[in-house]
Each structure stands twice: as C-alpha cells, then as structure tokens.
Design a protein that fits this description.
With about 270 residues, the chain is an all-alpha fold. The chain has two domains: about 110 residues, no CATH class; about 160 residues, no CATH class. It is built from nine helices and no strands. α3 runs antiparallel to α4 and α4 packs antiparallel against α5. It is globular, with a radius of gyration of 21 Å. The mean pLDDT is about 90. The protein binds zinc ion. Zinc ion binds next to loops.
Length: about 270
C-alpha cells in the first residue's frame, strides 16, 4: 500500500480513537453532574437514574446522550419545557476534553486511568465548592488513601513523595488556617481545603504540592483582582472558594509542571 494511503488510514483511526475517548469522557462528565448535584444532599449517585430537576420526570437513556441531547432539546426539558442549566453540557465538555488531553499525554495506560480518575474527583469537588463553599469529606478523605496509589502506579512517584505530599499538603494549609485565625479571629481557610490539598499531595507528591500552593495563590490573586474590578467591591472578607484554584493548579502541574518549573528556573539563572 502506498504510504500516503496508510497515513490516511492512520489519520482516520487516530481521530476515531480520539472521538471515542471524547464521548467516553463526556459520559463520565454526565455521571459527574449527578455527583455534583447529589453528593452534597447525601443522595445516592446510582439510584434513581437521571431526572429533570424541575418536574422530576425521568430522562430516558436515548435523551441522556451527553452534550448532544442538550443541543437537540435546545436546553429544555422535553416534558415541562423548563430550561436545563448550561452547567450540565459544560461539565460534560470539560470532562471530555480532559479525557482527550490525558490520552494524548499518557496514552492508553494505567497512568492515564489514574490521572483521569483524579481529574474527575477534582471536577466534582470544584463545582460543589463553587456552588456551596464546602468540600465534602466523603470525597477528600477516601481520596487521600486512593490517590496515595500514585506511588505504585506513577513511575516518577515514590512512597516518600506521596507521604511527604500528604503531610506538606495538609500541614501547610493547616498552618495558614491557624495563623489566619490567630490574626483575624476568623476562619478564612476552610478545613475542606486542608483535606483537599492533602489529597492532591497524595497524588502528585511534595514537589507538586509546592507548585500547587504557588500557582493557586497566583491564580487566586489574579482572579480576585478581576472580580474586584468587575464588582467594584474591595471586600477582603468575601468568601471565595479556594478549592477550584487548588484543583486547577494541580492539573497544570500534571500536564505542564515540569516544563513550567524548568522555564521558571531558566529565567532566574
Ligand atoms: Zn422537566
């Protein structure tokens, strides 16, 4: 077979794999929507199946295709015609993009599965924290133990990295919380953030935690300034959930951490 033809077939099979992984990610995203909505209410994430939040009519499986159903139904429930939140397809799309990004970086490996599970938990935590300013212990505490498996699954990680990550992640924010409390007599940093950073530390180790603290503060400061400019309020007591920044920073570390760190040190030297 001439090489341009085999290249053509390679291209088709590559894009088929990526499309399949995108749809797989979107379906997981659909499940994450259920988790975001039900975990804070202590409801089962398995039963019952999906239903319309407004009229509680069950959504049949053929109308529950991630992203596509939302577009076909133009964002409305087929029964009561109430608008369905834009958040649902957005969560599905974000999850799908991360599935593709994970595949492109790590291939079809156990490593990929590990990082994608970690990302999925971070997506759920971020949206719950954004909505309700809480990070459920039921996600972060088992997460510390589950993601400590990084020392087994991820080649660069050792058990020492993982343990130091947990201690540094939990300990550093604990110190921040205690000193904030001593100075302001007020709880600025939630206990949820402490357990979340311990979970992140379990997955990405102490170097990752150092990067995450640095990058999340930077992201938080930039976002805080933008929010202050938009709302024209300089309310320092405005409770901005910090979980999404910690999650975003740790994801930057997984995908771009090494190149960012060497770039940073190349500027310094
Ligand atoms: Zn409805």
């Amino acid at each position: 077979m001439p090489s341009y033809i085999s290249q053509y077939f390679n291209l088709i099979s590559d894009s088929t794999i990526i499309a399949a992984i995108f749809m797989f990610g979107a379906s997981i995203g659909s499940f994450l929507n259920v988790c975001i909505y039900r975990i804070p209410k202590d409801e089962s994430i398995v039963f019952p199946g999906s239903f319309c939040p407004a009229c509680e009519t069950p959504i049949p499986f053929y109308l529950n295709i991630p992203i596509i159903s939302f577009i076909i139904l133009r964002g409305k429930c087929r029964n009561c015609r109430k608008s369905i939140s834009f958040r649902y397809p957005i969560v599905e799309f974000i999850t799908a993009m991360f599935a593709v990004a994970t595949f492109l970086k790590f291939g079809l490996t156990v490593e990929s599965l590990f990082w994608f599970s970690f990302i999925a938990v971070l997506i759920v935590i971020s949206f719950i924290d954004f909505d309700l300013q809480i990070i459920p212990d039921i996600l972060s505490i088992p997460g510390i133990f589950i993601f400590a498996l990084s020392s087994v699954v991820i080649p660069e990680m050792t058990i020492k990295d993982t343990l130091l990550g947990i201690v540094m992640g939990g300990g550093s924010l604990y110190l921040v919380a205690v000193s904030y409390y001593l100075i302001r007599k007020d709880e600025g940093m939630g206990g949820g953030d402490i357990k979340l950073l311990a979970m992140i530390g379990a997955a990405i180790g102490w170097k990752g935690v150092a990067f995450t603290i640095f990058a999340s503060s930077l992201l938080g400061t930039v976002a805080g300034i933008i929010i202050m400019i938009i709302t024209r309020k300089a309310d320092s007591k405005l409770r901005i959930p910090f979980g999404p920044y910690l999650a975003a920073a740790s994801l930057i570390y997984i995908f771009k951490g090494e190149s960012l760190i060497s770039w940073y040190f190349s500027i310094l030297s």
